[in-house]
Structure formats: structure tokens, C-alpha cells
């Protein structure tokens, strides 16, 4: 099952993460929310460019018990696939976090150090 093409006239879904930082510590929970057209139906979730699961609510929770770095995407009914968001989980005792949102040249980059 490959990545679906763009339906005519459709807009991309938007994948939002809460908290919007990476990397996270092991066992921390991140909420992934897929924003789309509001059309009824299941939300499709992709993990590393493969269909992972389908849910009726437009959000899921992600946590990892081991170090991992994965790419997430979503597709709401009536929209096409969201841009990929990379989320990492670290077993280090100190992490320098960066925002998961896409940054453009000239954007302010806020960093966060957590221990």
C-alpha cells in the first residue's frame, strides 16, 4: 500500500504534535492530531511512509520505550497526505529539543534544553 496521490482540488492535511518538540524522552507521550476538511470518516496514519493505522478520532498518542526516530504523516477524509513530521525518542539524560514544525529561512528557531 503506497502513499495515495492528491485528489483534485483537495488540500493537504496538517499534522500537529503536542508537545511540538523533538527529541522526546523515552516513555513520554506525544499527541498527534490530524487537521483536515472536517469530512466524516476515518483518519489514516502513516509511519515511515507506510499505512500504520486508521482511527475515527483525528488524534492518536505515541510513546516509545526504546530510542527511535520515525516519520509520521496523516490523511483526513477529503484531503491529501500531510507533510512528514520527524519525531525522535532519546534515552539520553539531557536533550536539546527543536520544534517539529517546518521552518523557513529567516524564521526564529527556539531551542529547549531538558534534563
From TrEMBL:
GO annotation, cellular component aspect: external side of plasma membrane
GO MF entry, a single one: transmembrane signaling receptor activity
Sections of the chain in a coiled coil: none
GO biological process annotation, one example: cell surface receptor signaling pathway
Alphabetical keyword list: Disulfide bond, Signal
Keyword Signal assigned: yes
Gene3D superfamilies: Immunoglobulins
Protein name from the UniProt record: FCGR2 protein
This protein's encoding gene: Fcgr2
Amino acid at each position: 500500500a503506497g502513499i495515495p496521490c492528491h485528489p483534485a482540488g483537495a488540500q493537504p492535511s496538517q499534522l500537529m504534535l503536542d508537545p511540538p518538540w523533538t527529541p522526546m524522552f523515552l516513555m513520554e507521550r506525544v499527541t498527534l492530531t490530524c487537521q483536515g476538511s472536517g469530512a466524516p470518516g476515518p483518519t489514516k496514519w502513516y509511519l515511515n511512509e507506510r499505512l500504520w493505522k486508521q482511527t475515527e478520532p483525528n488524534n492518536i498518542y505515541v510513546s516509545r520505550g526504546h530510542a527511535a526516530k520515525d516519520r509520521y504523516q496523516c490523511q483526513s477524509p477529503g484531503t491529501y497526505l500531510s507533510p512528514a513530521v520527524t519525531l525522535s525518542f532519546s534515552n539520553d539524560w539531557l536533550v536539546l529539543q527543536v520544534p517539529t514544525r517546518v521552518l523557513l529561512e529567516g524564521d526564529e528557531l527556539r531551542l529547549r534544553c531538558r534534563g
